[in-house]
Fold each of these.
Amino acid sequence: MIDLPSPRQLRYLVAIADTGGFSRAAHRCNVTQSTLSAGIKELEATLGAALMERDRKGVAFTPIGEVVLERARRLLAEAEDLVELAKGSGEPLVGPLRVGVIPTVAPYLLPKLLPRLRRRFPRLRPFLVEERTAALTEQVEGGTIDVALLAFPYDLPRLAAFDCFEDRFLFAAPKGHELLAARTVDLAALAGETVLLLAEGHCLREHALSVCRLAARDQARAVEATSLSTLIQMVDSGLGVTLLPRLAVDAGALRGTRIESRPVADRDALRRVGLAWRPSSARAAHYRLLGEAIRDVVAK
């Protein structure tokens, strides 16, 4: 029979990776540093491989250590899912729920969503994390959070997803811009315009680029912003035009500015907003129920 790592040893390994050192990891795990070190030695002996190297500068994972760390996160997440399966067999959406939300959705949806969720699921206790898509998908896969509210299209090979609602893009420009004269804006008219976009790493940037079908020369003229609020300020200052999600505009993101918006003529000028979670999660049915609740809130 093959000796298997224990959940305790895997927790020690993940804690070291998350905190960057043995001392802080021991504190997180509520054990002495010698206990934690012994657990890691036992783990390495069981696996027959060195997982990390220590020096005065800190801890560095070996190549096989990185692979084991990733697997450890998944195994612990699936073990938690197993516990949740037993605990959650009764009433759905009860207790703590760790929810990640991307920055281009969180401030525009949550103020409307959270009060209604409290009324619909009074025993639910959501804990919110706002991060970019790549970071949230990594946290879901690793079990740091339970579910993430993301914008699609986005490649999720290891996660399940539920489509909540459609979020169309609107053309936005300072009052008086010639393209605002039309009821709807043809995206072909953006050629030659200075198009303001979010910086690399924001999925909204990739969605806007895809919708605009900007040529390389047009992308070179694009100006980047670090957040949606900064993007709006740049447009308000007359630095260019942009595409904004209707979710943000309907939530009052343009209030107090001289920016006007118009629908975009292209039927495909949209993103889809939905939930993503681990396929192994025992609460998958609960997450779909949450997705339906989000869909209802947006539809009203």
Note: The longest helix spans residues 63-87.
Amino acid sequence: MNDDKTKGSEKKRQNRKLQQLEKRLRITFNNKSLLRRALTHRSFVNESTVPVKDNERLEYLGDSVLALVVNEYLFKSFENYPEGDLAKIKSAVVSEVMLANVAINLNLGDFILMGRGEELTGGRQRQSILANTLEAIIGAVYIDSGLTKSKKLVLRLLKKDIQRIDKLSYLRDPKTTLQEIVQKKYKNRPIYTVIQESGPDHSKIYTVKLVINDEDITMGSGSSKRKAESDAAKKALELIYSDRIHI
């Protein structure tokens, strides 16, 4: 009898968590088991005492749905952009880093079903797991409700990032973009200084410091001085356009 009560309480707790996530996603699943499966990491399956399916097939499907929705949006929204430029924006939008950031904003890590071992090694914060789970949810929405609702979800989660990426001039040289901003405001240029070289001669990593108007802004790294400077400029642009710094 006590076992039945325990199982009943656990099921209610899980259902409440699913409802919380649905509220954050602004989606109501017809088939709640699809959402549960989308949240099930393979490590949970390995440690489960009952048969359960992981989210990897849903992730595979969600990856395709995500690509279709983003590509269609870019095609319709950026009519003057050539194919190569659209591909660059799409690549940035569906990157593991970008998807993981979206998942973090949803606190998705709190809802993932994972094995104890995976959790103890930081699985709930791991970028790859967060990004893959988000893709699995997109796949689950597609199976549950079709393409229209999947499209609404994807654009609700990623539309601002698409616009931000375009605004950040990812399609151009970030050094050139930053230089134009700085020259317009201060009539001088950003200053890049190499502060560290590490690694063997055939595989060096350079670290540069970026200074704007006598103020340290950020640092960048890369396999050449040019790449390190470009990395620093890109980081500075992200800080500027997200209003985290004001130059």
Note: The longest strand covers residues 191-198.
Amino acid sequence: MKNPHRNLFRVRILSAALAVAFAAVPTLGQQRLIVIGGGERPAEAMKRFVEWAGGESARILVVTWASGEPGASFKALKDSIIQYKPVSIEASPDRPLDADSRKRFIAQIEAATGVFFTGGDQNRIMDVLKDDELLRIIRQRYAAGVVMSGTSAGAAVMSDPMMTGDADLKKLDGTKVGVRAGLGLIADLIFDQHFLVRQRHNRLFGLMMVRPGMLGIGIDEDMAVMIADNRKLEVVGPTHVMFVDTKKVRGGMAVYFLKAGEAFDLRKRKQIKK
């Protein structure tokens, strides 16, 4: 005669194992993005990055392709999040990828619950992602609920189009602003970084003039925006984030400045209460 208690025990063990497995994976379909303007990474943003990625079950992949010193970039990022105790923090293979390192990167990103792009030159990232399959996998992982984040060049690359860094900051001429394809994790947004410190207003204003309908987000150094479900944006950091909307004002622009603790609805394009 079969022992019913043995079957019940097996069911409980299986249920516990599944609970542990799913706890390490962000909720499917809940896209979450944290974009940092360079400089110091706000502690609140880094803490939220790990929390959204699964807390102590988070598996973090640091993509260092933008950096000229990938080892140093990885160490700096690791030092800023290790206190939040993710279960693992790995560096991507260095660029350029060969067949073996490409295979390794695919395995890493498919296992990761959070992906962070470091600073440097955003063009280096997109040079690697001329590989359409890798670009598609990153976008698919974000859509599935893997948290994405980046600072400086890693912020710029989140857009599509992405600013390359080429521009004449003394002129209000969007045709002179260099752009190319980026990750495009959220449609109709363009991120600019180091914004107030490097006086990049003309660059963003000019680009918005030739990209009507898009929303420009200028993120200052030491600042971050945390975006849930591609819609609700929260601001953290000591200065301001600027929003430039060319959709609401015919022939002009609506400009908003938000500080820490304030929120913005990307769909309705207006400031909201948290």
Note: The chain has a mean pLDDT of 89.
Amino acid sequence: MADLAALRAVLAREAARRARTGQLPGTVLPRLRLLTTAELLCPGAPPARAADAAGELAALCAALGQMLRRPAGWLAADLPPGPLPVLVRPALLHGAVLCWLRGALAGGAAAVRLCCQPAGGAAVLQLLGCGMAGDAAALWRRLAAEAGGHAVFLAGRTAGAAARLPAADGLPVRPVPAPADLLADRYSLPRLYLDGFCAEPER
């Protein structure tokens, strides 16, 4: 992980230098995206606090509604009003969804549906309307494994993925970020994974 952190610092400096001089990002952002995926796929210590899957995804969808160059309703969310605590890193949850959405955008998906609902002591997460692309399946599997659940991949008219994440009831829950917090950094996960499909960040 130390080597990954050092490489991230080098790439971030190069991206910042290009932004200051008005140069195109070139291969910097794709390399940062690959590095971020590698970091998310590395198993870490179990999180000390649960993530509110419903709240995290609601904040992510709100942020994407502000930044994506897509008509309203392209990403439809079906989320419960109350919290759904699961024992995963919020960054991994976001990365798994965002990586899949990048594939959907690149593939020209007309619409995507994100569902997260409680069912039998677990949060059942589904992303429907797009086929498997890139590292999305690996991130989805890592997400399910970290929570102690399992993932499946869907084909045909219901193309996408689903994961059952056991509920982490009784554990302290992390505060949910505001949508603006997810976009504040030009190298935040939404900007990094959906680079090329969103409005340009402020320099």
Note: The mean pLDDT is 86.
